[in-house]
Design goal:
The chain is built from 10 helices and 13 strands. The chain has 333 residues and is α+β, with helices and mostly antiparallel strands. It is globular and about 65 Å long. The mean pLDDT is 96. Bound molecules: iron/sulfur cluster (SF4) (2 copies). One iron/sulfur cluster (SF4) binds next to helix 9.
Length: 333
Protein backbone atom coordinates (compact mmCIF):
# COMPACT_ATOMS: atom_id res chain seq x y z
CA UNK A 1 0.00 0.00 0.00
CA UNK A 2 1.15 3.54 -0.70
CA UNK A 3 1.77 5.45 2.51
CA UNK A 4 2.19 9.10 3.36
CA UNK A 5 4.20 9.96 6.48
CA UNK A 6 2.09 12.05 8.86
CA UNK A 7 4.78 14.71 8.99
CA UNK A 8 4.31 15.18 5.22
CA UNK A 9 0.56 15.84 5.33
CA UNK A 10 0.93 19.63 5.25
CA UNK A 11 3.16 19.34 2.17
CA UNK A 12 0.52 17.10 0.58
CA UNK A 13 -2.20 19.65 1.31
CA UNK A 14 -0.02 22.47 -0.09
CA UNK A 15 0.32 20.56 -3.36
CA UNK A 16 -3.48 20.32 -3.70
CA UNK A 17 -3.96 23.93 -2.62
CA UNK A 18 -1.97 25.14 -5.65
CA UNK A 19 -4.86 24.08 -7.91
CA UNK A 20 -7.99 23.98 -5.72
CA UNK A 21 -9.51 25.28 -2.57
CA UNK A 22 -8.78 22.62 0.06
CA UNK A 23 -11.10 22.21 3.04
CA UNK A 24 -9.62 20.53 6.11
CA UNK A 25 -10.83 19.89 9.66
CA UNK A 26 -9.61 22.72 11.87
CA UNK A 27 -9.95 24.11 15.36
CA UNK A 28 -10.89 27.77 14.98
CA UNK A 29 -11.63 29.80 18.11
CA UNK A 30 -12.58 26.63 19.95
CA UNK A 31 -14.94 25.41 17.20
CA UNK A 32 -14.09 22.33 15.23
CA UNK A 33 -15.15 22.62 11.59
CA UNK A 34 -13.99 22.30 8.00
CA UNK A 35 -12.26 25.45 6.81
CA UNK A 36 -10.14 26.43 3.80
CA UNK A 37 -6.48 25.52 4.15
CA UNK A 38 -4.67 28.71 5.14
CA UNK A 39 -7.39 29.85 7.56
CA UNK A 40 -6.23 31.00 10.95
CA UNK A 41 -6.51 28.00 13.23
CA UNK A 42 -5.06 24.55 13.81
CA UNK A 43 -5.28 21.57 11.48
CA UNK A 44 -7.02 18.79 13.41
CA UNK A 45 -6.93 15.47 11.60
CA UNK A 46 -6.98 13.55 14.90
CA UNK A 47 -10.43 14.74 16.05
CA UNK A 48 -12.94 11.95 15.58
CA UNK A 49 -15.33 14.31 13.91
CA UNK A 50 -15.90 18.04 13.54
CA UNK A 51 -18.68 19.63 15.58
CA UNK A 52 -19.97 21.45 12.50
CA UNK A 53 -20.66 19.13 9.57
CA UNK A 54 -19.23 19.88 6.13
CA UNK A 55 -22.66 20.10 4.46
CA UNK A 56 -22.31 23.80 3.62
CA UNK A 57 -19.69 22.96 0.96
CA UNK A 58 -22.48 21.69 -1.25
CA UNK A 59 -25.48 23.30 0.40
CA UNK A 60 -24.42 26.66 1.84
CA UNK A 61 -26.05 28.07 4.94
CA UNK A 62 -27.11 31.06 2.82
CA UNK A 63 -26.87 31.05 -0.96
CA UNK A 64 -27.74 33.77 -3.47
CA UNK A 65 -29.53 32.10 -6.38
CA UNK A 66 -30.61 34.84 -8.80
CA UNK A 67 -30.33 38.62 -8.98
CA UNK A 68 -32.10 41.10 -11.22
CA UNK A 69 -32.55 44.74 -12.08
CA UNK A 70 -35.76 46.34 -13.27
CA UNK A 71 -36.13 49.35 -15.56
CA UNK A 72 -39.44 50.63 -16.96
CA UNK A 73 -41.14 47.52 -15.58
CA UNK A 74 -38.80 45.28 -17.59
CA UNK A 75 -36.12 42.99 -16.19
CA UNK A 76 -32.85 44.38 -17.54
CA UNK A 77 -30.24 42.25 -15.88
CA UNK A 78 -31.03 38.72 -14.75
CA UNK A 79 -28.11 36.67 -13.37
CA UNK A 80 -28.07 33.11 -12.10
CA UNK A 81 -25.41 32.68 -9.41
CA UNK A 82 -24.59 29.01 -9.90
CA UNK A 83 -20.84 29.25 -10.41
CA UNK A 84 -18.73 26.77 -8.45
CA UNK A 85 -15.00 26.49 -7.79
CA UNK A 86 -12.80 23.40 -7.74
CA UNK A 87 -12.68 22.10 -4.17
CA UNK A 88 -11.13 19.20 -2.29
CA UNK A 89 -12.36 18.13 1.11
CA UNK A 90 -9.61 16.27 2.94
CA UNK A 91 -10.31 14.44 6.18
CA UNK A 92 -14.04 13.89 5.73
CA UNK A 93 -15.13 10.97 7.92
CA UNK A 94 -17.14 7.99 6.60
CA UNK A 95 -20.37 9.19 8.29
CA UNK A 96 -20.10 12.61 6.63
CA UNK A 97 -19.20 10.95 3.33
CA UNK A 98 -22.46 9.03 3.60
CA UNK A 99 -24.29 12.31 4.27
CA UNK A 100 -23.03 13.52 0.88
CA UNK A 101 -24.61 10.41 -0.67
CA UNK A 102 -27.92 11.27 1.05
CA UNK A 103 -27.74 14.84 -0.26
CA UNK A 104 -27.06 13.50 -3.77
CA UNK A 105 -30.27 11.48 -3.55
CA UNK A 106 -32.24 14.55 -2.60
CA UNK A 107 -30.73 17.08 -4.97
CA UNK A 108 -29.86 14.95 -8.00
CA UNK A 109 -32.33 12.07 -8.36
CA UNK A 110 -36.03 11.27 -8.88
CA UNK A 111 -36.22 13.35 -12.07
CA UNK A 112 -34.99 16.55 -10.41
CA UNK A 113 -31.52 18.05 -10.53
CA UNK A 114 -30.70 21.08 -8.44
CA UNK A 115 -28.17 22.96 -10.56
CA UNK A 116 -26.71 24.82 -7.58
CA UNK A 117 -25.89 21.57 -5.77
CA UNK A 118 -24.89 19.78 -8.98
CA UNK A 119 -22.29 22.35 -10.02
CA UNK A 120 -20.65 22.24 -6.62
CA UNK A 121 -20.74 18.44 -6.40
CA UNK A 122 -19.13 18.02 -9.83
CA UNK A 123 -16.22 20.18 -8.69
CA UNK A 124 -15.70 18.53 -5.32
CA UNK A 125 -13.12 15.81 -4.72
CA UNK A 126 -13.41 13.81 -1.53
CA UNK A 127 -10.53 12.44 0.53
CA UNK A 128 -12.02 10.34 3.31
CA UNK A 129 -10.18 9.74 6.58
CA UNK A 130 -11.08 6.35 8.03
CA UNK A 131 -11.57 6.47 11.78
CA UNK A 132 -8.98 4.68 13.89
CA UNK A 133 -11.08 5.27 17.01
CA UNK A 134 -14.68 6.27 17.59
CA UNK A 135 -16.30 8.75 19.98
CA UNK A 136 -18.76 7.57 22.66
CA UNK A 137 -21.57 9.21 20.62
CA UNK A 138 -20.69 7.52 17.29
CA UNK A 139 -23.03 4.77 16.04
CA UNK A 140 -22.42 4.78 12.27
CA UNK A 141 -21.93 1.00 12.11
CA UNK A 142 -25.45 0.50 13.45
CA UNK A 143 -26.58 2.54 10.45
CA UNK A 144 -24.83 0.11 8.10
CA UNK A 145 -21.60 2.07 7.63
CA UNK A 146 -17.98 1.11 8.11
CA UNK A 147 -16.21 3.62 10.40
CA UNK A 148 -12.90 2.61 8.78
CA UNK A 149 -13.70 3.70 5.20
CA UNK A 150 -16.28 4.82 2.63
CA UNK A 151 -16.24 3.38 -0.89
CA UNK A 152 -17.73 6.52 -2.46
CA UNK A 153 -14.76 8.76 -1.60
CA UNK A 154 -12.30 9.56 -4.40
CA UNK A 155 -9.39 8.80 -2.08
CA UNK A 156 -9.40 6.80 1.14
CA UNK A 157 -6.84 7.46 3.87
CA UNK A 158 -6.19 5.03 6.73
CA UNK A 159 -4.58 6.04 9.99
CA UNK A 160 -1.59 3.67 10.36
CA UNK A 161 0.03 5.40 13.33
CA UNK A 162 2.98 7.39 12.01
CA UNK A 163 1.65 7.40 8.46
CA UNK A 164 -1.53 7.35 6.40
CA UNK A 165 -2.37 4.49 4.03
CA UNK A 166 -3.46 6.04 0.72
CA UNK A 167 -5.89 4.34 -1.64
CA UNK A 168 -7.37 5.92 -4.79
CA UNK A 169 -10.96 4.78 -5.34
CA UNK A 170 -11.89 6.66 -8.54
CA UNK A 171 -10.21 8.03 -11.65
CA UNK A 172 -10.23 11.52 -10.15
CA UNK A 173 -8.78 10.02 -6.98
CA UNK A 174 -5.93 8.42 -8.96
CA UNK A 175 -5.14 11.77 -10.52
CA UNK A 176 -5.11 13.38 -7.09
CA UNK A 177 -2.83 10.70 -5.62
CA UNK A 178 -0.44 11.03 -8.58
CA UNK A 179 0.23 14.61 -7.45
CA UNK A 180 1.61 13.18 -4.21
CA UNK A 181 3.99 10.77 -5.98
CA UNK A 182 7.12 12.42 -4.57
CA UNK A 183 5.80 12.13 -1.01
CA UNK A 184 4.51 8.55 -1.05
CA UNK A 185 6.43 5.42 -0.17
CA UNK A 186 5.56 1.75 -0.43
CA UNK A 187 4.73 0.70 3.12
CA UNK A 188 3.14 -1.87 5.36
CA UNK A 189 0.59 -1.25 8.05
CA UNK A 190 -2.46 -2.65 9.72
CA UNK A 191 -5.63 -0.95 8.57
CA UNK A 192 -7.68 -0.09 11.67
CA UNK A 193 -10.98 -1.97 12.01
CA UNK A 194 -12.77 0.25 14.53
CA UNK A 195 -16.21 -0.48 15.93
CA UNK A 196 -18.57 1.94 17.65
CA UNK A 197 -19.27 1.29 21.31
CA UNK A 198 -22.73 2.86 21.05
CA UNK A 199 -25.04 0.40 19.32
CA UNK A 200 -28.64 0.50 18.17
CA UNK A 201 -30.64 -2.27 16.59
CA UNK A 202 -32.26 -0.99 13.41
CA UNK A 203 -33.94 -4.32 12.61
CA UNK A 204 -37.56 -3.64 11.66
CA UNK A 205 -37.40 0.02 12.72
CA UNK A 206 -38.71 1.60 9.47
CA UNK A 207 -41.51 -0.97 9.30
CA UNK A 208 -42.54 -0.36 12.89
CA UNK A 209 -42.45 3.41 12.47
CA UNK A 210 -44.69 3.15 9.42
CA UNK A 211 -47.47 2.04 11.80
CA UNK A 212 -46.82 4.65 14.46
CA UNK A 213 -48.01 7.94 12.96
CA UNK A 214 -50.95 8.14 15.38
CA UNK A 215 -49.08 6.67 18.35
CA UNK A 216 -49.40 8.50 21.71
CA UNK A 217 -45.66 7.91 22.17
CA UNK A 218 -44.74 11.11 20.28
CA UNK A 219 -46.14 13.32 23.01
CA UNK A 220 -43.91 11.70 25.61
CA UNK A 221 -40.85 11.52 23.31
CA UNK A 222 -41.06 15.24 22.48
CA UNK A 223 -41.74 16.44 26.04
CA UNK A 224 -38.19 17.72 26.71
CA UNK A 225 -37.54 19.37 23.32
CA UNK A 226 -37.25 23.16 23.48
CA UNK A 227 -37.37 23.61 19.70
CA UNK A 228 -33.95 25.26 19.42
CA UNK A 229 -33.09 23.60 16.08
CA UNK A 230 -29.53 22.71 17.13
CA UNK A 231 -30.06 19.09 16.07
CA UNK A 232 -31.02 20.05 12.53
CA UNK A 233 -28.30 22.66 12.03
CA UNK A 234 -25.60 20.26 13.22
CA UNK A 235 -26.98 17.27 11.35
CA UNK A 236 -24.98 16.54 8.18
CA UNK A 237 -28.07 15.20 6.39
CA UNK A 238 -30.74 17.79 7.28
CA UNK A 239 -31.50 19.75 4.14
CA UNK A 240 -34.63 21.83 4.81
CA UNK A 241 -34.37 25.30 3.32
CA UNK A 242 -36.37 28.42 2.76
CA UNK A 243 -36.28 30.68 -0.32
CA UNK A 244 -36.75 34.41 0.08
CA UNK A 245 -36.57 37.51 -2.10
CA UNK A 246 -34.97 40.78 -1.11
CA UNK A 247 -35.94 43.88 -3.11
CA UNK A 248 -34.13 47.17 -2.86
CA UNK A 249 -35.45 49.85 -5.22
CA UNK A 250 -35.02 48.67 -8.79
CA UNK A 251 -32.95 45.63 -7.99
CA UNK A 252 -33.17 42.55 -5.90
CA UNK A 253 -32.11 38.99 -5.43
CA UNK A 254 -33.48 35.63 -4.43
CA UNK A 255 -31.62 33.43 -1.94
CA UNK A 256 -32.09 30.22 -0.05
CA UNK A 257 -30.99 29.54 3.49
CA UNK A 258 -31.13 26.63 5.90
CA UNK A 259 -34.39 26.22 7.75
CA UNK A 260 -35.39 23.74 10.43
CA UNK A 261 -38.40 21.49 10.75
CA UNK A 262 -38.05 22.00 14.51
CA UNK A 263 -39.33 25.58 14.20
CA UNK A 264 -43.08 26.22 14.29
CA UNK A 265 -42.84 28.74 11.42
CA UNK A 266 -41.42 26.07 9.14
CA UNK A 267 -44.84 24.64 8.29
CA UNK A 268 -47.02 27.68 9.04
CA UNK A 269 -49.01 28.55 5.94
CA UNK A 270 -50.07 31.93 4.60
CA UNK A 271 -53.57 31.63 6.08
CA UNK A 272 -52.15 30.79 9.50
CA UNK A 273 -52.87 27.04 9.44
CA UNK A 274 -50.03 24.89 10.72
CA UNK A 275 -50.12 21.13 10.08
CA UNK A 276 -47.39 20.64 12.72
CA UNK A 277 -48.65 22.98 15.42
CA UNK A 278 -46.72 21.55 18.38
CA UNK A 279 -43.38 19.93 19.12
CA UNK A 280 -45.17 16.57 19.21
CA UNK A 281 -45.76 16.72 15.45
CA UNK A 282 -42.36 18.27 14.78
CA UNK A 283 -40.35 15.61 16.64
CA UNK A 284 -42.51 12.93 15.02
CA UNK A 285 -41.67 14.35 11.62
CA UNK A 286 -37.96 14.53 12.37
CA UNK A 287 -37.69 10.92 13.52
CA UNK A 288 -39.99 9.54 10.83
CA UNK A 289 -38.07 11.42 8.14
CA UNK A 290 -34.68 10.17 9.40
CA UNK A 291 -35.67 6.57 10.00
CA UNK A 292 -38.71 5.78 7.84
CA UNK A 293 -39.67 8.18 5.00
CA UNK A 294 -36.16 8.55 3.54
CA UNK A 295 -35.67 4.81 3.69
CA UNK A 296 -38.91 4.26 1.76
CA UNK A 297 -37.96 6.78 -0.91
CA UNK A 298 -34.22 6.26 -1.29
CA UNK A 299 -33.43 2.94 0.38
CA UNK A 300 -31.16 4.34 3.07
CA UNK A 301 -31.45 5.94 6.50
CA UNK A 302 -31.25 9.72 6.73
CA UNK A 303 -29.28 9.26 9.93
CA UNK A 304 -25.62 8.37 9.40
CA UNK A 305 -24.89 7.84 13.10
CA UNK A 306 -22.50 10.79 13.46
CA UNK A 307 -23.78 11.44 16.99
CA UNK A 308 -23.75 15.25 16.73
CA UNK A 309 -27.40 15.71 17.72
CA UNK A 310 -27.09 13.60 20.86
CA UNK A 311 -23.80 15.24 21.80
CA UNK A 312 -25.13 18.80 21.45
CA UNK A 313 -28.87 18.79 22.21
CA UNK A 314 -29.21 21.11 25.25
CA UNK A 315 -31.82 18.82 26.83
CA UNK A 316 -30.18 15.50 25.92
CA UNK A 317 -32.69 14.28 23.36
CA UNK A 318 -31.13 11.12 21.99
CA UNK A 319 -32.17 9.42 18.76
CA UNK A 320 -30.43 6.19 19.87
CA UNK A 321 -32.50 6.04 23.08
CA UNK A 322 -35.60 6.63 20.98
CA UNK A 323 -34.70 3.69 18.72
CA UNK A 324 -34.11 1.51 21.80
CA UNK A 325 -37.43 2.56 23.35
CA UNK A 326 -39.27 1.63 20.16
CA UNK A 327 -39.00 -2.03 21.07
CA UNK A 328 -41.34 -1.43 24.00
CA UNK A 329 -43.95 0.49 21.98
CA UNK A 330 -47.09 -1.44 21.10
CA UNK A 331 -48.55 -0.81 17.64
CA UNK A 332 -51.93 -1.70 16.16
CA UNK A 333 -51.43 -4.08 13.22
S1 LIG B 1 -31.48 20.09 19.75
FE1 LIG B 1 -32.82 19.01 21.22
S2 LIG B 1 -34.06 20.63 22.15
FE2 LIG B 1 -33.15 21.53 20.30
S3 LIG B 1 -34.75 21.18 18.71
FE3 LIG B 1 -33.33 19.42 18.62
S4 LIG B 1 -34.28 17.86 19.93
FE4 LIG B 1 -35.26 19.83 20.43
S1 LIG C 1 -29.81 12.51 13.22
FE1 LIG C 1 -28.14 13.00 14.69
S2 LIG C 1 -26.79 11.19 14.68
FE2 LIG C 1 -28.13 11.06 12.87
S3 LIG C 1 -26.93 12.01 11.20
FE3 LIG C 1 -28.22 13.65 12.09
S4 LIG C 1 -26.93 14.60 13.68
FE4 LIG C 1 -25.96 12.65 13.14
Amino acid sequence: MKTLAKNKIKEAIEILAKESKVLVPMQINGISKFAPWGSEGTLDLEAVNTVLPPKDLLFPNTEKMYSYKVSNQEITDYTVHNEAEQQVILGVRPCDMQSIKCMEDVFLTKSYEDEFFKNKREKLLTVCMGCAKTAPTCFCDSMGLNPGKHEAADVQLYDLGDSYGVEAQSEAGQELVSKWQGLLTEGEGTIPQPACTLKVDMTGVPEKLSKMFESPVWKEVSRKCIGCGTCTYLCPTCYCFDIEVRNDGNEGYRFRCWDSCMFSEYTRMAGGHNPRPSKTERIRNRYLHKLEYFNERYGKNLCVGCGRCLAKCPVNMDITLFIDQLKEVAVNE
